[in-house]
């Protein structure tokens, strides 16, 4: 998925700054995406730009698209990151410059590794479900892998953790409580979809070396005593061996975590680099038609890159 902001703000982030356990609620902001979709952007935000290697989170829906085209995101480029597509309702048709053509459905993992360069589009199929609800996330690739060959993976069989207390957890990426997703990762991290039944009162084991955040997908729940409304992100910091979870009614969350990212990065538009020159070269290559390849079969024009900001982009630490 693309950042369609025509004047994207550079995100200067990275650096291994650890915090102890905290409870920092970050509200999302409304951002238009494509022709008919509005998302809640939870990362990056004013207070936090990364959680482990997770550097971008959009939550969208639930939207009634029965009489609408739904998601329509034209071909656009990515560099230096992975995209993670996760649906609760609806379908998204993925095309990319590798020739991939895949419909991603609820609780299936669509994982695209851009590496040195890839382009893709995302759209609701012509005959689509009436509702669209999900999240799009990016993972920054560490320096040694940021020029890896591009790839696309589609996984339909993901591990599910169940137990007492009303919690069910699908491991989307990385590892949680001894269960590992089949998706390829390049740094220690976890992404999980948590379903809490009414009356849930339990504790989820965590890795104390990871920093974590939780975002509400539906309903209201309590995470370490903090009540979260839909569309909010709670940053939890590091140093936790477990996470208390409660819910009075059915609800769902996403849990994101990972070792604090040690490198300084620059994230601008749909690129993750290490310097202004990285970003400027990627933009020029996209505009000239070089390097990123062609997305075939999309009915429409590809996105043009916005103008670079007037000053140089500088990599800095991950926390203000």
Automatic annotation (TrEMBL):
Q: Which UniProt keywords apply?
A: Iron, Metal-binding
Q: Which SUPFAM superfamilies match?
A: RmlC-like cupins (SSF51182)
Q: Which cofactor does it need?
A: Fe cation
Where do the Pirin C-terminal domain residues begin and end?
A: 192-291
Domain Pirin N-terminal residue range list: 43-139
Copy out the cofactor comment.
Binds 1 Fe cation per subunit.
Question: Does the keyword field hold DNA damage?
Answer: no
Could you confirm whether the keyword DNA damage appears in this record? no
Query: Gene3D superfamilies in the record, alphabetically?
Result: Jelly Rolls (2.60.120.10)
Under the heading Pfam families, the entry gives: Pirin, Pirin_C
The record, for InterPro entries, names:
Pirin, Pirin_C_dom, Pirin_N_dom, RmlC-like_jellyroll, RmlC_Cupin_sf
Q: Which GO terms describe its molecular function?
A: metal ion binding
Amino-acid positions noted as binding Fe cation in the UniProt annotation, renumbered to this chain = 76, 78, 120, 122
Positions of region (Disordered): 1-29
Give the family per the record: Belongs to the pirin family.
Q: Which PANTHER family match?
A: PIRIN, PIRIN-RELATED
Q: Please give the name of this protein.
A: Pirin family protein
What does the organism's lineage look like at the top? Bacteria, Bacillati, Actinomycetota, Actinomycetes, Kitasatosporales
């Amino acid at each position: 998925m693309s950042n369609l902001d025509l004047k994207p703000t550079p995100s200067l982030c990275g650096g291994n700054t650890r915090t102890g356990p905290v409870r920092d609620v970050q509200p999302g902001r409304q951002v238009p995406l494509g022709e008919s979709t509005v998302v809640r952007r939870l990362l990056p935000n004013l207070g936090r730009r990364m959680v482990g290697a997770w550097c971008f989170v959009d939550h969208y829906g639930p939207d009634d698209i029965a009489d609408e085209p739904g998601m329509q995101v034209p071909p656009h480029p990515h560099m230096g990151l992975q995209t993670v597509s996760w649906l609760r309702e609806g379908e998204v048709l993925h095309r990319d410059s590798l020739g991939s053509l895949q419909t991603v459905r609820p609780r299936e993992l669509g994982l695209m590794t851009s590496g040195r360069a890839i382009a893709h589009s995302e759209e609701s199929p012509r005959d689509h479900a009436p509702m669209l609800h999900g999240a799009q996330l990016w993972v920054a690739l560490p320096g040694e892998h940021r020029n890896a060959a591009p790839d696309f993976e589609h996984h339909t069989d993901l591990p599910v953790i169940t137990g007492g207390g009303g919690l069910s957890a699908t491991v989307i990426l990385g590892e949680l409580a001894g269960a590992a997703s089949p998706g390829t990762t390049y740094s220690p991290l976890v992404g999980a979809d948590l379903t809490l039944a009414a009356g849930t009162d339990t504790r989820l084991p965590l890795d104390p070396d990871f920093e974590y955040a939780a975002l509400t997908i539906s309903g209201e729940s309590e995470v370490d005593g903090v009540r979260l409304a839909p569309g909010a992100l709670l940053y939890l910091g590091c140093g936790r061996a477990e996470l208390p979870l409660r819910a009075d009614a059915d609800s769902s969350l996403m849990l994101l975590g990972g070792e604090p990212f040690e490198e300084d990065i620059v994230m601008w538009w749909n690129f993750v680099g290490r310097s202004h020159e990285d970003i400027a070269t990627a933009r020029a290559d996209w505009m000239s038609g070089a390097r990123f390849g062609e997305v075939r079969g999309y009915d429409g024009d590809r996105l043009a890159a916005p103008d670079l900001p007037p000053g140089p982009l500088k990599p800095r630490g991950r926390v203000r």
